[in-house]
């Protein structure tokens, strides 16, 4: 809430001060995370104007996250997505979004944390009940762009981690692939797959 209140002052200064019209630059933000979209050749001036307004408002720019990006040659990450040029069917290029590698890594880390030996005292059903909402929520948010391969990779990772956990929970080693079939994971335990979330969704294009 505080971030929104403070950033509102910047938005008012940007638009009411005529900078958006002068530079033909729109600001897209969520709380204090934002992107300024402008035409080629005006990026440096837009960035300088942004810094000047921030300074007047007593706000600090995070320089580690602030940079000038030229599309489509470059990409940038915003709210968990990578924005820029992507490639679809038969290598056809388009502007759009895809879940960022950082977002995928964070989910893998959460999956790993939920399938370590610290949870050996819990039941397999309890583990799946913890994993499913996490996976469903992630897929509902990260549903734009070419997600099919990412979903497939994450499905494989979840199944492998759960099998290893089941195996070690029983005091044994190994991957558990022979002992715990797909039918056991998905039908008996009720583990969800991310890949079905992808069906019926088209690539988001800008």
Quickly list its features:
alpha+beta; 3-stranded antiparallel β-sheet; two-stranded antiparallel sheet; 8 helices
Task: Summarize the structure in words.
The protein is of the alpha+beta class and 206 residues long. 48% of the residues lie in helices and 13% in strands. The strands form 2 sheets. The protein has a 3-stranded antiparallel sheet. Strands 1-2 form a two-stranded antiparallel sheet. Helix 4 runs parallel beside helix 6 (148-169). Mean pLDDT is 90; it is low at 200-206.
In spatial order, strands of the major sheet run 3-4-5
Can you count the beta strands?
5
Low-confidence stretches: 200-206
Q: Output the structural class.
A: alpha+beta
H-E order: HHEEHEEEHHHHH
Give the end-to-end Cα distance, rounded to a whole number of Å. 29 Å
The helix content, as a percent range, equals: 40-55%
**Rg of Cα set:** 22 Å
Mean pLDDT: 90
Main pleated sheet: 3 strands, antiparallel
Number of helices: 8
Percent strand equals 5-15%
Shape: elongated
